[in-house]
């Protein structure tokens, strides 16, 4: 029996004010038998093990599993999360299989695990999900629509500005801080 999980298993996390409604670990573990652009989107290195998307609607910080070193991946991701927490930055995290961030995958082969972190505008109070939410699944490109009317009348051009607006300013603000974090190779106190 194989100990490998199916390629279509995804994990998502919404931080407090990152669309988690109460202070708890709000994880999503689900099976989605469709490919998402986030799994193959091209990236460029920001600093150290941290990459950023070249052209993706919602800018994010991206990491990958290298040399099967899960501990190193976790250390790198936790450095950024600790920085977010120290600055009280709302965030979302998504884990999926995907292609290598350095572009060395052959024929689009899913040969790594990608971990994506979005710094985002905080969300407070009652959630408005009348059309769609702007939480981890939606940022990753999996956008559940809650009514037939909206499904029939909504387009990608309607969704992208909303999703992009959740992360763009925070990404720009956090990018130099994260770059320094990995260039200085210091942990956040």
TrEMBL record:
Any coiled-coil regions, as ranges: none
Secretion signal span: none
Uppermost EC category: transferase
GO (cellular component) term, any one: cytoplasm
Domain called GDPGP1-like C-terminal: residue spans: 53-180
Reaction catalysed by this enzyme: GDP-alpha-D-glucose + phosphate = alpha-D-glucose 1-phosphate + GDP + H(+)
One GO BP annotation of this record: glucose metabolic process
Domain of life: Eukaryota
GO molecular function, one term: hydrolase activity
EC number: 2.7.7.78
Function, in words: Specific and highly efficient GDP-D-glucose phosphorylase regulating the levels of GDP-D-glucose in cells.
PANTHER family membership: GDP-D-GLUCOSE PHOSPHORYLASE 1
Protein name: GDP-D-glucose phosphorylase 1
Organism: Cherax quadricarinatus
């Amino acid at each position: 029996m194989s100990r490998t999980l199916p390629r279509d298993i995804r994990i998502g996390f919404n931080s407090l004010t990152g669309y988690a409604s109460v202070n708890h670990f709000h994880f999503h573990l689900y099976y989605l038998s469709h490919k998402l652009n986030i799994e193959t989107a091209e990236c460029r290195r920001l600093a150290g093990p941290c990459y950023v998307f070249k052209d993706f609607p919602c800018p994010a910080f991206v990491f990958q599993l290298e040399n099967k070193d899960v501990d190193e991946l976790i250390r790198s991701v936790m450095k950024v999360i600790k920085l977010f927490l120290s600055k009280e930055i709302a965030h979302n995290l998504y884990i999926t299989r995907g292609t290598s961030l350095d572009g060395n995958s052959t024929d689009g082969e899913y040969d790594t695990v990608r971990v994506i972190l979005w710094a985002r505008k905080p969300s407070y109070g009652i959630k408005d999900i009348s059309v769609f939410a702007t939480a981890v699944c939606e940022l990753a490109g999996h956008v559940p629509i809650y009514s037939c009317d909206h499904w029939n009348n909504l387009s990608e051009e309607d969704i992208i500005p909303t999703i992009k607006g959740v992360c763009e300013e925070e990404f720009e603000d956090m990018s130099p801080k994260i770059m320094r974090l990995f260039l200085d190779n210091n942990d956040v106190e």
